[in-house]
């Protein structure tokens, strides 16, 4: 049995052909799934019964179940806990803005990157999500909010470039007209910096935004926060970014989580400026979300402001991330963990 959401239109057409059915059925089926939110073959009234039977024998449509929805009291942020058919739980966050709705999707169940400040990685990685499972987060969220999603960020649990093939397939399908039809420029992929994959992604020459979780301006400090920094130096990451910029002509975003007494002093700001000066980039400063399992504390608002001002004065385009949904633990992996804890189901997570 296949999850039909893992199939592209071409692949489903081929399947129809192999099963002696007309190829145009593939588009009809996807219209039901993507345009009408009909997620069982029985209700696809223009598909003949014998084809529906064949479909039922070969495919399922995996839409995760909503285990819980948390709505922020501070802003229009919704956090969904989704459960897949194998029982695994992930989280997706939807942010409603005036200019459109944005979703932050998870790409893996758990994560194996080990960043010290992040809740998603605490129990390691359970498994990759398939392209269809990532896509289904978007479909289910659209149904729940009764509105279209126009922006996607791959910034939930998991490292997208550690699940490269499935994530690339997801990007292909979610952008397609027959599917969700999200524009490339409305998609951001965030990575802790897996250098060879960044280059591979650049070679695909997509117009998506690449975001790099930098978080530190030198290797020593970065290694204290992110194990991946032992594998790839900041120089190598920067080379890959320059390659991405030169190939795609797209501006790269650098994420920098400000942690009190760790990476928020003047010296760090100076080093960061030296690193990024002249690059087509944007810095997103994120007051670190405090996670109970570690000691990373948020920088003071004074320090955040000072850090921000130094970057701006040096001519580096910078924003301070608004803390959306901070009352509902909207940071990576926090909700899944507390849910599993409450169910006493941590199984090493
Ligand atoms: N693995 C990818 C994407 C998922 S994490 C990556 O590393 O980019 C999405 C972003 O949230 C990353 O920038 C990550 O470093 C950041 N993040 C994780 N935990 C955080 C926390 N407690 N506070 C602030 N940002 C955090």
Automatic annotation (TrEMBL):
Q: Which residues cross the membrane?
A: none
Q: Which GO terms describe its molecular function?
A: methyltransferase activity
Necessary cofactors: [4Fe-4S] cluster
Q: What top-level branch of life does the organism fall under?
A: Bacteria
A Pfam family this protein belongs to?
Radical_SAM
Q: Radical SAM core domain: from which residue to which, for each copy? A: 97-327
- Coarsely, its chief localization is cytoplasm
A biological-process GO annotation: methylation
The record makes one more remark, namely: Reaction proceeds by a ping-pong mechanism involving intermediate methylation of a conserved cysteine residue.
Q: Which PANTHER family match?
A: 23S RRNA METHYLTRANSFERASE (PTHR30544), RADICAL SAM CORE DOMAIN-CONTAINING PROTEIN (PTHR30544:SF5)
Q: What is this protein called?
A: Probable dual-specificity RNA methyltransferase RlmN
What's the name of its gene? rlmN
């Amino acid at each position: 049995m296949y999850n039909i959401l893992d199939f592209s239109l071409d692949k489903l057409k081929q399947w129809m052909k192999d099963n002696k059915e007309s190829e145009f059925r593939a588009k009809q089926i996807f219209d039901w799934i993507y345009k009408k939110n009909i997620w069982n073959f029985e209700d696809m009234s223009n598909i003949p019964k014998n084809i529906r039977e064949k479909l039922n024998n070969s495919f399922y449509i995996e839409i995760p179940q909503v285990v819980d929805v948390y709505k922020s009291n501070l802003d229009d942020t919704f956090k969904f806990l989704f459960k897949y058919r194998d029982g695994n739980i992930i989280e997706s966050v939807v942010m409603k803005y005036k200019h459109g709705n944005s979703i932050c999707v998870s790409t893996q169940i758990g994560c194996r990157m080990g960043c010290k400040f992040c809740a998603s990685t605490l129990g390691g990685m359970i498994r990759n999500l398939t392209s269809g499972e990532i896509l289904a987060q978007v479909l289910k969220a659209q149904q729940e909010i009764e509105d279209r999603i126009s922006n996607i960020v791959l910034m939930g649990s998991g490292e997208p470039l550690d699940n490269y093939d499935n994530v690339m397939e997801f990007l292909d399908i979610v952008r397609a007209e027959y599917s969700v039809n999200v524009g490339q420029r409305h998609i951001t992929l965030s990575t802790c910096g897996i250098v060879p994959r960044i280059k591979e992604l650049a070679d695909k020459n997509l117009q998506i935004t690449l975001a790099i979780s930098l978080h530190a301006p030198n290797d020593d400090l970065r290694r204290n926060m992110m194990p991946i920094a032992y594998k790839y130096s900041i120089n190598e990451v920067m080379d890959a970014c320059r390659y991405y910029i030169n190939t795609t002509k797209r501006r790269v975003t650098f994420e920098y989580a400000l942690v009190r007494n760790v990476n928020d002093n003047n010296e760090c700001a100076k080093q960061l400026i030296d690193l990024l000066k002249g690059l087509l980039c944007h810095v997103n400063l994120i007051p670190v979300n405090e996670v109970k399992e570690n000691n990373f504390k948020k920088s003071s608002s004074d320090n955040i402001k000072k850090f921000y001002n130094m970057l701006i004065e040096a001519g580096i385009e910078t924003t301070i991330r608004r803390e959306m949904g901070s009352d509902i633990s909207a940071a990576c992996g926090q909700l899944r963990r507390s849910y599993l804890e409450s169910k006493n189901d941590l199984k090493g997570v």
